[in-house]
């Protein structure tokens, strides 16, 4: 638009009567937004209009909604009621499997109480305050009668007729068995893959064949039914079906660790039977998760050579026991049975040809291999606030040393040891040390008789060497009698709690045990000339 020169257009402003917009305030962002109001009258009016226009469709939707509610009530409600009120759940949904199972469980508990009643001492020791409603509640939970927990006076009533129960325990037991069978079969009709129902049926059956059939069905459906599995284990063990028994034992050891001690009690006698031992080796060759724990438990049974036969059979089968599996047995035979020679012979029989070729009176003296943990190799015992490990030397990468790092404060050194068999004579213990250990008392190497613990020789206190590797040595003599076995130990020579404070680190390398010159001249050295 063209305006004449000098014309100033009027300023635009709000129309007359219009509301001036307000500027946003300082806290306007805190104001709650206004929600639209729900007009109930409009919704109800719209619903009435829709019902009037589509009457048949509305009736159909109403019937469908009622059917859905009934379906939920018939299926979900019994599931919720079954654990607390199974009979009410059956009233809502007759034949519901969960409700029938719960009632069968209650009957089973009552049957167990009849078969294995609590001892009289347990009843007498019950607190007197638990009477009335509490006693009735506990009796009901146990599946028995409230009168079963009555006092001593109730056991000998004055009226002779009152002493005779309406039904005998045998009749109650037969009635409970029949109820359990009926309910278990009803569950199987509607849910045929329920392993628990087969197990309950097996517990209530009368003949051994019926029990075995039901338990086999339960085991086939689920390996997590310990009652069925344990029943089949006992049955297979009694008829000497060892492969079958081991299958059931394997399932129990995998799925029910709480029963491991009971399950292992059936495996241990198999060690003395050649056929059973062969079947056990076949299972152990597959390295099940319970193999290590089972082999380690054989340390409690060193009174016979059955464990040795098992270890040898495993070696011949191509699946020898590892050091972790073998060590508890060797230690038990070494310490508990006081049989170091027998333990050493067992260890020798289980070594491979390569390990036998490297065998020395002091094994792994240069720490070239990681310690196996067996008593005839370096055995490192765990301590507190201290770390022991095998490291490579910086100047000689092919050489290795045992290093001990101390924390700050009080330490508890567990020790490093090895059981050896040296001939009678004089020897020289040699080695090298390096480190910056700071303590009141240092580290000590010593040689003692085993298991008598007579001291044969000991080094001075060692604190390491800051400037480089420094040698140390000490002599010792093995007597001709009474000391066929010895033990070499590295320990912290602390005598009290105040002397257990240490810091820094210390390393030992190139450990050597050589016969003294006089003995070496006779050609009785246990070690090769190069060492």
Describe the SSE topology:
Elements: H1 40-53, H2 55-81, H3 86-92, H4 97-115, H5 120-124, H6 133-141, H7 152-155, H8 169-190, H9 195-204, H10 208-221, H11 226-238, H12 242-255, H13 260-267, H14 274-285, H15 291-297, H16 306-316, H17 323-336, H18 340-349, H19 353-357, E1 379-380, E2 386-392, E3 400-406, E4 416-420, E5 425-435, E6 438-439, E7 443-449, E8 455-458, E9 470-478, E10 486-492, E11 502-515, H20 517-521
Antiparallel strand pairs: 1-4, 2-3, 3-11, 4-10, 5-9, 5-11, 6-11, 7-8, 7-10
What structural keywords apply?
11 strands, six-stranded antiparallel sheet, Jelly Rolls, alpha+beta, 531 residues, disordered C terminus, 14% strand, five-stranded antiparallel sheet
Written description of the protein model:
It is a single chain. The chain is α+β, with helices and mostly antiparallel strands and 531 residues long. Among the domains are: 223-357, no CATH class; 379-520, Jelly Rolls (Sandwich), CATH 2.60.120. The protein has 20 helices and eleven strands. Strands 2, 3, 5, 6, 9 and 11 form a six-stranded antiparallel beta sheet that branches. Strand 2 (386-392) and strand 3 form a beta hairpin. Helix 12 runs antiparallel to helix 13. The protein is flat and about 120 Å long. The relative contact order is 0.05.
């Amino acid at each position: 638009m063209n305006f004449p020169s000098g014309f100033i257009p009027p300023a635009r402003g709000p129309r007359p009567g219009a509301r001036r917009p307000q500027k946003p305030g300082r806290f306007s962002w805190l104001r709650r937004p206004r929600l639209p109001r729900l007009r109930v009258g409009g919704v109800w009016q719209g619903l009435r209009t829709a019902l009037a226009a589509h009457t048949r469709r509305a009736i159909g939707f109403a019937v469908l909604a009622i059917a859905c509610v009934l379906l939920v009530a018939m299926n979900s409600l019994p599931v919720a009621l079954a654990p607390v009120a199974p009979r009410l759940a059956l009233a809502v949904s007759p034949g519901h499997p969960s409700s029938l199972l719960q009632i069968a469980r209650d009957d089973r508990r009552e049957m167990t109480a009849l078969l294995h009643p609590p001892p009289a001492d347990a009843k007498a020791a019950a607190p007197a305050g638990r009477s009335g409603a509490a006693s009735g509640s506990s009796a009901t939970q146990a599946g028995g009668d409230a009168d079963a927990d009555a006092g001593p006076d109730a056991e000998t009533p004055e009226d002779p007729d009152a002493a005779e129960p309406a039904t005998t325990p045998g009749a109650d037991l037969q009635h409970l068995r029949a109820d359990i069978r009926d309910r278990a079969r009803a569950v199987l009709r509607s849910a045929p893959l329920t392993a628990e129902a087969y197990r309950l049926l097996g517990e209530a059956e009368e003949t051994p064949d019926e029990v075995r059939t039901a338990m086999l069905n339960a085991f086939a459906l689920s390996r997590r039914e310990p009652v069925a599995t344990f029943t089949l284990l006992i049955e297979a063990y009694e008829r000497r079906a060892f492969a079958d028994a081991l299958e059931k034992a394997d399932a129990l050891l995998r799925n029910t660790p709480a029963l491991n001690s009971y399950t292992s009690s059936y495996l241990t006698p198999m060690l003395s039977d050649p056929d059973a031992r062969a079947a056990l080796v076949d299972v152990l060759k597959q390295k099940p998760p319970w193999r290590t724990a089972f082999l380690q438990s054989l340390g409690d049974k060193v009174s016979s050579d059955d464990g040795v036969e098992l270890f040898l059979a495993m070696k011949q089968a191509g699946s020898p026991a590892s050091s972790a599996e073998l060590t508890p047995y060797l230690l038990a035979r070494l310490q508990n049975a006081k049989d170091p020679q027998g333990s050493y012979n067992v260890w020798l029989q289980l070594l491979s040809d390569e390990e036998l070729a490297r065998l020395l009176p002091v094994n792994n003296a240069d720490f070239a291999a990681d310690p196996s943990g067996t008593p005839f190799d370096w055995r490192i015992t765990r301590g507190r606030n201290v770390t022991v490990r095998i490291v490579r030397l910086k100047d000689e990468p092919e050489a290795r040393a045992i290093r001990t790092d101390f924390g700050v404060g009080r330490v508890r050194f567990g020790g490093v040891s090895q059981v050896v068999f040296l001939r009678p004579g004089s020897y020289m213990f040699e080695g090298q040390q390096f480190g910056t250990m700071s303590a009141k008392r240092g580290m000590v190497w010593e040689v003692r008789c085993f298991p008598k613990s007579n001291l044969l020789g000991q080094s001075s206190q060692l604190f390491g060497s800051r400037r480089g590797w420094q040698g140390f040595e000490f002599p010792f003599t093995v007597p001709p009698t009474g000391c066929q076995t010895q033990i070499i130990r590295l320990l912290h020579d602390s005598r009290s709690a105040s002397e257990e404070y240490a810091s820094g680190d210390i390393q030992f390398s190139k450990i050597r045990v050589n016969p003294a010159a006089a003995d070496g001249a006779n050609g009785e050295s246990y070690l090769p000339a190069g060492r």
